Amino acid sequence: MKKFLSLLAAAVMLCACCLPALAEVTMKIDETVTYQTIESFGTSLCWWAQYMGTWDSKYMNTMRTNRQRIATLLFDPTYGIGLTNVRYNLGAGSADSGNGSYWDPNRRAQSFEVAPGEYDWSKDEGAMWFVQEATRLGVTEVVLFCNSPLERLTKNGWAHLTPGTTSNIDPENYAEWAVYCCDVAEHFLELGIPVKFISPINEPQWEWAGDQEGCHYEPNEIAGVYIAFLEELEKRPALVAAGVELSGPESGEWGGQTISYVSAILGNSRLNGHFTAIDCHSYWSNTQSKISFRNWMKVQYPDVKIRMSEWCEMVNGSDFGMDSAINLAKVVQEDLTILDVVSWSNWVGVAPGGYRDGLIYASEAGDGSISIVPLKRLWSYGNYTRFIRPGFTRVEVSGNDDLLPVAFKGENNGKEQLVIVLINESYTNQVAALEGDFSAYRTMEIHETSNARDLARTYNGAVKTEFTVPMQSVVTIVLTK
Fold first, then answer.
1. Topology of the domain covering 19-34+396-480
2. Full-model pTM
């Protein structure tokens, strides 16, 4: 037996010697070189909150309701991922009228208006519950965004275009549309909902001839929309006092016509004096298009911040694993480091499944039972959002970038922290080696999202500068002074 055990031990040692050594990735952190300061991470309530907000039955055997379970996962900074931005869909009324062509009734949206200047504030009950619960859990930035003008103000009476047409609203109706949106913003503020932005235009370059609310605009049309909104906004002392701003142009990509749309806003002297940031989406965008846009902004409008207000992977089929989670994390990292975005928002917080969009899959069966499945996408996004809080500033990371590092410093709960997020998309464990002056930091935590873990803490102790990053994982290192 002893001889057998000796042979077995020798065989194990031989096999171990044959295994390839873990690759070491060295990164130097320089906190003296700083970039943008984060304002928010968020998601949209569009197309799910209006009905999931009515799910008030108990979630399994817990004290929370189904809707509270969802809100906790998205917005609670301890038990969820701590998002601080919510994009609320200010609907055009297609759900009230039944007009237009929509393959999914959930893509219709209600309007609060029942007659010009008259409102029923009990409408859109489910989404209103979510935006108020998100506020209670810590959201500090609410964006009211429109996919389409109010139906009654459109040319065809629908909240989407007739195929083959272009813009669906006449300029003489811009001002009345602005009145409606500002009225809603004032009501939200009265409820304690922290409205920070009104965004009247969404992805203006697309046709929007059906399936969801939407409106096309040519670049030379959008300045008129924003001027009408700015003039109305400036008449509202409550909105001005709350610091409410306009956002846009919400272009669907960083390439294509985006520079034309941004120029239409920032090239107008009236609007240029108002816009402190521009918002665009990261769909259909490669690394080079982001570099080109960022370089153009640095030359033309170096003092205007960039916000990324909508992205999902745009791939059919459900995914519960790390593939889509890593893809999401990579887009966040790229937008933070190339575009220097101060805000980043996933498209939808929750979806029924069948697409790589939501951070949670949730659905109701015919018998009334409800399924809520937090996805790896939720937790990999949380590797950024739970730890990189509003007010954190990005710092320099140089050296090997195989792990796609990004680092931020700031104050969280009264403690100064350095947060580093790493992505190992390979199928081999890698060793991360950090270089820098970490003498002021007393403790270190490591949080991992992988096939085996959901944003789980895997280390809590003294600061160490070398550690393993598991294969197919997103890892966050938090150093605290």
1. Immunoglobulin-like (2.60.40)
2. 0.94
